[in-house]
Specification:
single chain, mainly alpha, Arc Repressor Mutant, subunit A, elongated
């Protein structure tokens, strides 16, 4: 008898959540729909996530895990945290599986803002704060000037948001000059 790895089921559930968010939006995210899309029972889903808020928080933790993986990969290739943060996402480039996975998770997480903004959203908000706080801390630790670190973060956020919204990318040559100037000052 082979036992299944619980993390496989957990990942299938989170993949299903991402798919529903990306394809249909927050209005279609119910525990029943996520379970059906993942191919698990509702009880199986509840074993891993006690409620919808825990499920959404799990998605945001996954964003954090994937960004940590990508930062480690970038650092192992000799890039700085700032260089990684300022890279423009390329969702059409499937050669970078880590970048694509992070991009899809971020886009799905952004779709959660379609949902009700009430006290039940607290766990999801806390998970998002943790992810954003970790990125801010990494930049603050690398760039001694807090104003420069904040400028790098804001530019990176803007470029990522532009990609998430599907807006045309910035001219690559111009953007390389922007990044070079920002990193020159840091």
């Amino acid at each position: 008898m082979t036992s299944r790895d619980p993390s496989d089921t957990r990942n299938r559930i989170l993949d299903a959540l991402e798919s529903l968010l990306l394809d249909k939006g927050m209005s279609q995210v119910t525990l029943e729909n996520v379970a059906a899309t993942a191919g698990v029972s509702k009880g199986g889903l509840l074993y891993h996530f006690k409620n919808k808020d825990a499920l959404l928080a799990g998605l945001l933790r996954r964003v954090g895990e994937r960004s940590d993986q990508q930062v480690r990969a970038a650092l192992s290739q000799g890039k700085s945290v700032a260089e990684w943060y300022l890279q423009a996402p390329h969702p059409e480039d499937e050669t970078d599986a880590l970048e694509l996975a992070l991009y899809q998770s971020m886009l799905a997480a952004m779709r959660t803002v379609d949902g009700p903004q009430d006290a039940a959203q607290a766990e999801t908000d806390r998970a998002l704060d943790e992810v954003l706080g970790a990125w801010k801390t990494a930049l603050d630790n690398e760039i001694p000037d807090p104003v420069q670190a904040e400028i790098v973060r804001l530019v990176g956020d803007g470029v990522y948001l532009r990609a998430l919204l599907g807006l045309p990318p910035i001219d690559p040559d111009l953007y390389r000059q922007v990044v070079a100037r920002l990193l020159q000052q840091s």
